Amino acid sequence: xxYENTAGxxxxxxxxxxxxxxxxxxxxxxxxxWQLEYNLTGEMLNSTYIPPQFMPRGAKxxxxxxxxxxxFVVSAAGTVAxxxxxxGTNGVVLTEAQLENLGTKDVxxxxxxxxxxASTTGTTASERVAKAITGTVxxxxxxxxxxxxxxxKTKV
Length: 156
Fold this sequence. Notes:
The protein is mainly beta and 156 residues long. A four-stranded antiparallel sheet has the order 3-12-5-8. The chain has helices at 42-45, 96-99, and strands spanning 3-4, 13-14, 33-41, 54-55, 60-70, 79-83, 91-95, 103-106, 111-112, 127-128, 130-134, 143-151. The protein contains two helices and twelve strands; from the N terminus they run E-E-E-H-E-E-E-E-H-E-E-E-E-E.
């Protein structure tokens, strides 16, 4: 119930957000900046199962970070791409060097396609997040977290 008249004096209270149309002002709502967190392990990268996670249509990637807690064993020039239905085209393509070094690093520069921070359109379709590996990744080692921060605002 958005309006309430409990006093009986023709005085109404408004509860919740008001949708007044074309408003101008400072944004005070929540949920404009989202984070996609993807926990990577050697076992997970070699598995066929992918957790169901979606990147919404119109999302604009702001930045991406990779935290490596246990180094991966990746073949020479191997990559791991995390992204939409074609991760190597629209996604974050992690290199062998990034996966084989401990620590936290900004990997925004390896985001490609509609996931690139310089993309003018953002994502053009809602896509389930997938993975693609070139070369090999050992299943017995490696633990990391990929965090992709993006702007997404739904309109009513």
